[in-house]
Amino acid sequence: MKSKLPNASISIFAVMSKMAAEHNALNLSQGFPNFKSDPLLIELVHQAMKDGYNQYAPMPGDIGLREVISQKTANLHDKIYHPETEITVTAGATQAIFTIIATLINKGDEVIIFTPAYDCYDPTIKLFGGKTIPVQLKAPNYKVDWNEVEAKVSPKTKLIIINTPHNPSGIIFSENDMLQLQSLAEKHDLFVLSDEVYEHIIFDGNTHFSTARFPDLASRSFITASFGKTFHNTGWKMGYCLAPENLMAEFRKVHQFNVFSVNTPMQKALAEYLQTPDHYLGLSSFYQQKRDYFLSLIKNSRFKIIPSQGTYFQMLDFSEISQESDLKFSERLTKENKIATIPTSVFNANQEDFKQIRVCFAKTKETLQQAATILNSI
Ligand code: PMP
Ligand code: GLN
């Protein structure tokens, strides 16, 4: 059979988690919390199942959930997405991203992405005949040069994908970044896919500048979010997509033949749980404490560290420890030092190696202490 993705390899998240399990290593690679989510949320799912909410949900999602997502977005970003026509509940952000790209991209269309980039963007673009145009952000600060971005726009450019807070670097886009993006997208008439799965994990008093806040940008953007990331349940694969009515109508044409609808009892539970804004507004300080605790434990290690501004990831620069490739270095750490991390060159254009590994600090205090003991010994 002729492969549709001849160059695709197994996702680094699958590779590193498997290697961690095989070598009995502490797993700080794939991004998932190792503590329990709120028992109330689990109870609400249980209750929804017992109450008989076990059949297909409406195609765009439970209306109660869509209403509360609409209120949340209005409160946070002063922008109303209509629950009937502008919000769709998805099987995680991954399915939303796949569906957006399937909706927009035809053969020959170009899509600008910022590398290091989350791993599902490029193969999905290729599946639909599109061409990925990477803009490489450079360690250690990963700042965007908007002139460089504009230089990559061609008459074939259809979509630009952003991710703020950014996985894996932990940078966030400033208001100025968003204004630059807005004028670029307007000038060249581009669509925007705004991957905002870490919307509620922002540190040091900074603000999350969603594309929803910028009227022209919002009129051409699809926003994706993830309840798995937000509520410590990555295995639930629940998320949603926001877009103006004309874009959402096209998204739903694809969504209905992709999954049709997603998990009913979890939607019922989330509709109830989201009524209490504290359930998500406290996450920034919760994770900032974890980041600060972890960084205080490894401050005397030989890794060079710039504190992450958001997400639950931290980049560690190992250039003063080893000149090995980041792939070799992370493999050796997993097998010999018993700690698994993510080598980030796999997310870069041409696999450029900045000697940076990514660790996930969404872990218990005990796990962070064990991790620090190992990292301090390297
Ligand atoms: N985008 C980014 C940047 C991610 O880190 C992830 C992983 N959560 C996703 C999308 C996919 O989210 P989900 O697990 O909800 O599919
Ligand atoms: N988003 C998670 C990460 O960045 C992993 C998701 C996955 O395993 N596909 O680690």
Walkthrough of the structure:
The protein is of the alpha/beta class and 378 residues long. 40% of the residues lie in helices and 14% in strands. The chain is built from 15 helices and twelve strands. It has helices spanning 12-22, 39-50, 63-77, 92-104, 121-127, 146-151, 175-188, 215-218, 227-230, 245-258, 264-273, 278-281, 283-297, 326-337, 365-376, and strands at 26-27, 87-90, 110-115, 131-136, 157-163, 191-195, 221-226, 239-242, 313-317, 339-340, 342-343, 356-360. The strands form three sheets. Strands 2-8-7-6-5-3-4 form a seven-stranded mixed β-sheet, sandwiched between helices. A three-stranded antiparallel β-sheet has the order 9-12-11. Strand 5, helix 7 and strand 6 form a beta-alpha-beta unit. Helix 2 (39-50) packs across helix 11 (264-273). The protein is globular. The termini are far apart. The model has no long low-confidence stretch (mean pLDDT 97). The structure holds 4'-deoxy-4'-aminopyridoxal-5'-phosphate and glutamine. The site of 4'-deoxy-4'-aminopyridoxal-5'-phosphate has 15 residues, from helix 4 and helix 9.
N-C termini distance = 45 Å
The chain-level structural class is alpha/beta
Unreliable segments of 5+ consecutive residues: none
Radius of gyration: 20 Å
Mean pLDDT: 97
Q: Helical amount among residues, as a percent range?
A: 40-55%
* Order of neighbouring strands in the sheet with most strands: 2-8-7-6-5-3-4
Strand content: 5-15%
Let me know the number of strands.
12
Ligand set: 4'-deoxy-4'-aminopyridoxal-5'-phosphate, glutamine
Q: Main sheet?
A: 7 strands, mixed
Number of helices: 15
Order of helices and strands: HEHHEHEHEHEHEHEHEHHHHEHEEEH
Quaternary form = single chain
Shape: globular
